[in-house]
Amino acid sequence: MESLFGSIVFELIGAGTKWIYFRIRNSFLGKPGPSFKAIYLGTKKRGSAEHLYDGMSNIMVGMIVVVILLCIFIELVRYFY
After folding, report:
1. CA distances (Å), 21 to each of 47, 48, 77, in order?
2. 57: which residues sit within 8 A by CB, 6+ positions away?
3. In a 3-state reduction of DSSP, which class is residue 1?
């Protein structure tokens, strides 16, 4: 149960990070940005390898973002105390 909850949280954080990145990048390129749903759900083919890759990449990006934020938080705490 904990791993399911963790993967959902990491996947949401990763999808949100990718959505913000693509929105900013596409605004500079003058293109419309993708929707959050398109990034979170990925390809429309359920059970395909692409769908698995989309979900796993969201989880990996989410984990990387959480680790970076934790490192920043730890350094700020060490700096101020």
Report:
1. 27, 25, 28
2. 14, 18
3. coil
Q: How many CA atoms lie within 13 A of 76 on its CB side?
A: 6
Q: What percent of the chain has pLDDT over 90?
A: 52
CA dist., res. 57 & res. 72, Å (int): 23
Residue 4 burial (CB count, 10 A): 8
**Can you give the length of the chain in residues?**
81
Q: Is it the case that residue 37 has pLDDT exceeding 80?
A: yes
- Alpha helix (H) ranges present in the chain? 2-29, 36-41, 49-80
pTM: 0.80
Terminal CA-CA length for the chain: 36
| Dist CA 51 CA 30 (whole Å) | 28
